[in-house]
Structures are given as C-alpha cells and as structure tokens.
Design goal:
With 53 residues, the protein is α+β, with helices and mostly antiparallel strands. Helix content is 23%, strand content 45%. The chain contains 1 helix and 4 strands; from the N terminus they run αββββ. The longest helix has 12 residues. The protein is globular, with a radius of gyration of 10 Å. The N and C termini lie far apart (26 Å).
Length: 53
C-alpha cells in the first residue's frame, strides 16, 4: 500500500463520517479536517507519527 492509502484507511476507521481533504507533502501525508491540520509520517507501511496543528 502507498502512504496515501494507509492514511485513508486509518481515517476511514477512526473518523468515518468526517469530511477531509488529503494530499501528499514533504515526506508525510497532510490531512485538512475542518480547522484541524494533521500530518502523518509513514515508515515501512506503518503510521509512526501524527502531528496535529
């Protein structure tokens, strides 16, 4: 699975009814969810860090 797909799978389980926009960035996957920005770091097919801004 690609990093993008790994994060989409996580969001589908964790926040099934929340709308979000997702894009790949500088070695992470960025997710905009309303007023919240989430930055996912994925290494070897596993989410290793989530930063909330």
């Amino acid at each position: 699975m690609k990093n993008f797909e790994i994060v989409e799978s996580y969001l589908a389980k964790k926040y099934p009814n929340k709308p979000y926009a997702i894009r790949e960035g500088n070695r992470c996957v960025w997710v905009s969810m309303g007023l919240v920005e989430l930055y996912f770091t994925v290494n070897n097919g596993t989410i290793t860090d989530i930063q909330v801004d």
